[in-house]
Design goal:
By secondary structure, the chain is mainly α. It has one domain (6-138). 69% of the residues lie in helices and 0% in strands.
């Protein structure tokens, strides 16, 4: 699949950093407002897929290898399991904010403890899952 016109390439280069910034915002504020890891991961995946479509798959395959994406996906899944389990091991509650997680004041950005870390890894997991699925569906 070849890339698109210069207008689409230029606009995607301009818009993707803003999309990624939005994904960071959704991830960081996920424990305070509606959002979190899943919508942030979808925004990240959509921005990467936009670049893949704008520049063509043949050029971008070198930059986004399938093996690397699968490895990141698997590691993120392990972290999604590990973060709540640490709280369970040390205090008999999943997502318990024990000494290994940062504490904060309510309604502040860094007050989520283990939930904020969970949102970050969930966003990475969802993004790589959608990217791997897109790559496999469009591969010839």
């Amino acid at each position: 699949m070849e890339g698109m016109t210069i207008i689409v390439k230029t606009m995607s280069r301009i818009l993707v950093p803003f999309f990624l910034l939005l994904a960071v915002y959704i991830t960081i504020h996920g424990h305070l407002t509606a959002g979190g890891g899943f919508p942030a991961g979808v925004v990240i995946a959509a921005s990467v897929i936009l670049l893949l479509l704008a520049y063509g798959l043949t050029e971008q395959e070198k930059r986004l290898a399938l093996r690397i994406s699968k490895s990141i996906w698997a590691f993120a899944a392990i972290m999604i399991f590990t973060i709540p389990t640490i709280g369970f091991i040390f205090s008999s509650y999943f997502f318990k904010n024990v000494g290994v997680y940062p504490r904060g004041w309510p309604t502040l950005v860094f007050s989520g403890g283990s939930l904020a870390l969970f949102n970050i890894w969930e966003a990475i997991h969802v993004a790589t899952a959608f990217i791997v699925a897109f790559y496999l569906l469009t591969r010839e």
